[in-house]
Specification:
By secondary structure, the protein is an alpha/beta fold. It has a 6-stranded mixed sheet, sandwiched between helices. A two-stranded antiparallel ribbon has the order 1-2.
């Protein structure tokens, strides 16, 4: 695997750039080659630093533009090269992506089978989305619908495993509070931060009907209703409510490299 440091052109001097680059074991784009750095930032839709993007060596296709966070989550590289899954379990790491991409989110309880059922529903919706709305060559600049399962988890904070699941539950609870959603499950929502809007499809089935749906029955949120909800959301045909809350901001660029770009107060 080849690694290249590109910088962002905002270092105060060549000396500071070289000092920063010398702390890394891989080559860097030359300080003098500002055009290449700017072109890379534009092509890869870099919004801030540090950013780590993985490209396929065969065709330079983007594998993930979220590699920095994935390194933190998977320091041993067990899931490398971190190819994106069609549906993800919502965590704090993914909250910043809501600033860049709309999302379909299914809230469920943390009981046995709940997550598997929700994943199955959203995978079918994701497959339809990819078929009907294929990504263009400029996909990095194009908001793409994300699919998340937000799992409500409530268990004693004891061992490491329990702490991990509680963090997942905390992320779901925090998102529910930020979007001002009712405390009900299952709950399917569509969120578009750029439009400042959220749409909700509440499941009106009782617990018996929900069990029937998971056993092949009807009455609860289904793949068909999720797809219909998704398409209406994409077409702008759903009633929406303003988010009206403060979502976590995306990670700030490295402060030291922004000193020249920021105004200096007297």
């Amino acid at each position: 695997m080849a690694v290249r440091h590109a910088g962002d052109g905002r270092s105060r001097s060549e000396e500071s750039f070289q000092q920063y680059a010398s702390s890394m074991p891989w080559p860097a784009v030359s300080w003098a080659d500002d055009a290449t750095r700017q072109e890379l930032a534009s092509l890869l839709a870099v919004q801030g630093i540090p950013t780590l993007v993985l490209l396929d060596a065969k065709d330079c296709a983007v594998i993930t533009d979220d590699a920095r966070a994935r390194v933190n989550d998977d320091p041993d590289g067990k899931d490398f090269p971190w190819r994106p899954e069609p549906v993800s379990l919502f965590t704090e790491r993914l909250s910043s992506r809501l600033h860049d991409h709309p999302a379909l989110i299914l809230f469920v309880e943390g009981g046995p089978g709940e997550v598997e059922w929700a994943m199955s529903i959203l995978r079918q919706a994701a497959d339809v989305y990819e078929e009907r709305h294929p990504a263009s060559e400029s996909a990095l600049r194009e908001p793409r619908l994300q699919f998340y399962v937000a799992q409500d988890v409530s268990m004693p904070r004891q061992g490491a495993r329990e702490m991990i699941w509680n963090r997942i539950g905390d992320a779901a609870d925090g998102l529910r509070e930020q979007l001002v959603l009712e405390d009900t499950v299952p709950l399917l929502v569509a969120v578009d931060v750029w439009r400042g809007a959220v749409s909700v499809l509440e499941d009106e089935a009782d617990d018996d009907e929900l069990d029937e749906e998971r056993d092949g029955g009807a009455g609860a949120i289904s793949a068909a209703s999720a797809v219909a909800f998704m398409e209406a959301f994409l077409a702008g045909d759903l009633p929406t409510a303003p988010i009206g809350v403060y979502l976590p901001p995306p990670p700030r660029p490295h402060q030291a490299l922004l000193q020249d770009a920021l105004p200096v107060e007297a």
